[in-house]
Amino acid sequence: MHPFALSRADDPAKAIAAHAHDPQLVFIAGGTDLIGLMKDRAALPERLLDINGLPNMARIDALPEGGLRIGALARMSDVAADTEVRRRFPVVAEALLFAASGQLRNMASIGGNIMQRTRCAYFRDEIGCRCNKRNQGSGCAALRGLNRNHAIFGWSESCVATNPSDLAVALAAMDAVVIVLGKTGERLIPFTDFHRLPGSTPQRDNVLDRGDLIVAIEVPATVEAHASHYLKVRDRASYEFALVSAAAGVATDGRRIRSARIAMGGVAHKPWRLTAAETGLRGISLDDIDGLRSAIAASFTDARPLAHNAFKVELAQRAALRALQTAGART
Amino acid sequence: MSRTPKPGSGDAATDKTSSGTATGKSRIEPVPVNLTVNGLARTITVEPRMTLLDALREKLALTGTKKACDRGECGACTVHVDGRRVLSCMTLAAMMEGKKIKTIEGLEENGMLHPLQLAFIEHDGFQCGFCTSGQIMSGVAMIEEAKAGWPSAATADLGRHFTLADLSRAEIRERMSGNLCRCACYPNIVDAVVEAVARS
Predict the structure, then answer these.
(1) What is the pLDDT of residue B133?
(2) In B20-58, which positions are buried (b, 16+ CB within 10 angstroms) versus exposed (e)?
C-alpha cells in the first residue's frame, strides 16, 4: 500500500470538520472495502481518520413506532444475529448473512457496507484500466469488454458498473432512511435516493458530500418488512457477490396482495426498485403465478442488457418471483 | 527506522510504494502500538499502512499466520481480535491499540493442542497446510459464534434460537466458506469441525 497517515476521531463534529476541509482524508471503520481499494490503488488517500471510537454509533435500537435504528458502526454480524432484526426484518438479516464471509461480517460496519464500491474488474484492476469511475474521462472498458456481471438498467456510456451491496437492496426495498451528520447538521436521505445512477459522473457512487458522516440507518416498521425475504443468485453457493438478487416484502388480505415491495441487486448502479411491478401486483393472488409473472415483467420492458449479460433479464424476473413467493409464505 | 523492503518478506506492495515515498509528498512516520498477542503485552512500531498480518509475521516473528491472497478473499490470515475471527490482511496494525490478538501459536494450552487442532490431524484436514492455521482459527471462533446462537445463511428458520445441536454439516460448510483450501480438503475439514463440536 502507498504511505498514508492515520489518526483517531473521538468527536463527530471534529471528524466532520476534518473531512470537510481535507479532500485527501477518508474515514475508515471496518476497512474491509477501503483497504482492498488501497491495495488495488483504486483509492490513494493521504490521510485516514479512524472513526471506530465515535460514541454511540454501534447500537442497534428499536424505535418507538416499531422501526429499527442501526448505528453506522454496528458490525454486520451483530446486526444479523440480533433477535429483533431476525424476527421482524428477515430481509435485512438474510441480506447480511448471504454477504461476504464470517470473518468479513465481524469486521465490516453497516455505514461502510452501503459505501462499498463496485466490484467491476476494470475498476478494481491494480494496473489501472480505462475506467471513468477511477480516472474521469478515461472511458469505460466494460461497456464493450467483459460485462457479464454488469448493469441491465440505468447505465450510461460512461459506466455500466453495478453496486455490490446486498444490504443496500434490502434497505431500498424497505424504504430505509440514511441519517447523515454534515456541516449543516443532521439530514435524512431516503435510501432509494442515497445511491446515484452513473450518468456522466460515475465517480460519484452516492449523494454524500465532503464533511458527511453516516451515523445510522433507520428501517420503518411495515407489514411488508415482517413478511420479507432476500434471495441471492450467484456463481458459487457461498462467499460470492450476486449475479442478481431480489429483496421482497409483501402485505396481503388472505392470499391477495395488498402491497408489495421489490428491489433488485446486481442489475444497476444502485438498488433497483421494481415500481411498475409493485403497482401491478396489487390485488393479485399469491397463487396466480402467471399474474405475478406478468406484473413483474412490467418492470423489465426498459431493461437494456449488454453483450454478455442478457441472461440477467430472465434470471432477475425469476428471482423477483421466487423472492415474492417466499416472502408471501411468511405472511 | 529503515523503510528498505526486506528480501523475501513476500510483501510485493512494499516495493511499489518506494516510488510514492520518493515524491516526498508524505513521509509517514511509524507509530507505536500497544496490544496483547497470545496473552503477552507487546509494543510494536509500525507504519500506518502495515497490516496486522505483516506486523505479526515481520515484527513479532509469528509466521503461523499465512499470507496468501492479501485481499480478504481466502481466509488464510484469519486471527482472533478480542475473541472474534477477522482477516489480518485487511486490518491495519495501527488500529489495534489495546486489542487482544490470538494467533495459531496461541491456541495450545499447557502444551496441549486445541481440540480442533487435534481433530485436523486425526481427520487429515489438510494436505499442503498453507490454509490450515486460518481454517483452524476460523473454525474455533465459528464454534463460539454458533454457541452464542448466531444464525447463518444455511439456517432454515432465522426466528428460532440457534443452538450447537443445529450445527449441521451444511451449516459448517456455509460458516467456513470464508476459508479456501486449494487442496480441496473440505470434507475432512468439515469432519474435523464436527468432531471438535462433539468434544466441546
Answers:
(1) 98
(2) beeeeeeebeebebebbbbeeeeebebbbbbbbbbbbbb
Q: How far apart are CA B13 and CA A35, in angstroms?
A: 12
Q: Which residues of A touch B159 (CB under 8 A)?
A: 86-87, 90
- Is the CB of B153 less than 8 angstroms away from the CB of A98? yes
- In this predicted structure, the answer to whether residue A143 has a pLDDT above a threshold of 90 is yes
Phi-psi sector, B194: left (phi>0), alpha (psi -120 to 50), beta: alpha
* Contact flag A86-B151 (C-beta cutoff 8 Å): yes
Residue length of chain A: 331
| CATH assignment of B29-106, among 3.40.250.10, 3.30.70.20, 3.40.718.10, 3.10.20.30 | 3.10.20.30
In this complex, is the C-beta atom of B133 within 8 Å of any C-beta atom belonging to chain A?
no
Chain-chain contact of B142 with A102 (C-beta, under 8 angstroms): yes
At A286-302, the pLDDT tens digits run 999 999 999 999 999 99
Contact flag A28-B92 (C-beta cutoff 8 Å) = yes
CATH 3.40.50.1700 fits B115-199, yes or no: no
Smallest Cβ–Cβ distance between B95 and the set A50, A90, A97 belongs to: A50
Q: What is the CA radius of gyration of chain A?
A: 19
How far does chain A reach from its first CA to its final CA, in angstroms? 50
Interface membership of B152 toward A (CB under 8 Å): yes
Cβ–Cβ below 8 Å for A5 and B28: yes
Nearest CA in chain B to A79: B150
Q: Which of B21, B71, B176 sits opposite A39 (nearest CB)?
A: B71
Domain boundaries, chain B: 29-106, 115-199
Residue pLDDT, tens place only, A212-250: 999 999 999 999 999 999 999 999 999 999 999 999 999
pLDDT, position B13: 39
Q: What pLDDT score was predicted for residue B22?
A: 35
B72 to chain A, any CB pair closer than 8 A? The answer is yes
Domains and CATH numbers, chain A: 5-53 (3.30.43.10), 239-326 (3.30.390.50)
pLDDT of residue B110 exceeding 50, the answer is yes
Residue A310 C-alpha cell reads as: 442478457
**Residue A211 in 3-state DSSP?**
coil
Residues B166-191 have pLDDT tens digits of 999 999 999 999 999 999 999 999 99
pTM above threshold 0.90: yes
ipTM rounded to 2 decimals: 0.97
